[in-house]
Amino acid sequence: MLLSRDEDIAVLSVCRNGREAVQSINLHKPDLVFLDIQMPAYNGFEVLDKLTYTPPAIVFITAYDEYALTAFEVHALDYLQKPFSDERFYDMLSHVKQQLSTGATASFSALDEQLEPLQNKLKIKSSGKIHWLDYDEVLQIEGFDYYIKVHLKDRFLLVRESLKRLLERLPAGFRQVHKSNIININHVRSLEPRNRGGFELTLSNGQTVASSRHYRSQIAEML
Q1: Can you tell me the distance from the alpha carbon of 40 to that of 44, in angstroms, rounded to the nearest whole number?
Q2: Are 215 and 205 in contact (CB under 8 A)?
Q3: Where on the phi/psi map is residue 208: left (φ > 0), alpha (ψ -120 to 50), or beta?
Q4: What share of the chain is helix, strand, coil (3-state, %, to 5)?
Q5: For residues 10 and 30, is the Cβ–Cβ distance under 8 A?
Q6: Disulfide: which of 25, 48, 68, 192 matches 200 by Cβ 3.0-4.6 Å?
Q7: What is the pTM of this model?
Q8: 158 pLDDT more than 50
Q9: For residue 175, which phi and psi values (nearest 5 degrees)?
Q10: Is residue 197 a contact partner of residue 213, using CB atoms and an 8 Å limit?
């Protein structure tokens, strides 16, 4: 209703859930996307992860204030917490239109195109930097309450992402061997059976990782 009052805006699609949003955004390639956080199928951040097209402008409109920082980390132009006034909405829209008209938001899309050769690498954000890692660099990934630790040969990176979401982005050479641990099978050097059906895995850098019996099928595939 608010958008209909602005002649510069054409509503291309209204989606009922995150899955529809991914399909519609990739199809219509809009200049501006409004996303909620909590949605059926995929949440707002999962929608952005699954897109093959990068919208020049993203605005989150949601009842949840605790996700504001994460929203700006994915380059959202604004974050409206419900309920909001019409004035607040039109201030946001004016800002977005100004950014679009000057091309200030286009840099992210252009950057993605320039970095297309890096698409076959693992992209993670750590300590304010974006890293593109060769998958073979990664030995193991540990999951904690609010972050994960990506272990490389001689260092590690801390990432604000769930172990489950990262696993979805990893190729077949990675196996989850514990509820809080994923390993790169190319770096496994030995397996030693432990009590209760688990194993101790030794990696190429000498680190050991314990597997649990709940993930025996993952170990069996390696063998």
Answers
A1: 10
A2: no
A3: beta
A4: 40, 25, 35
A5: no
A6: 192
A7: 0.51
A8: yes
A9: -130, 140
A10: yes
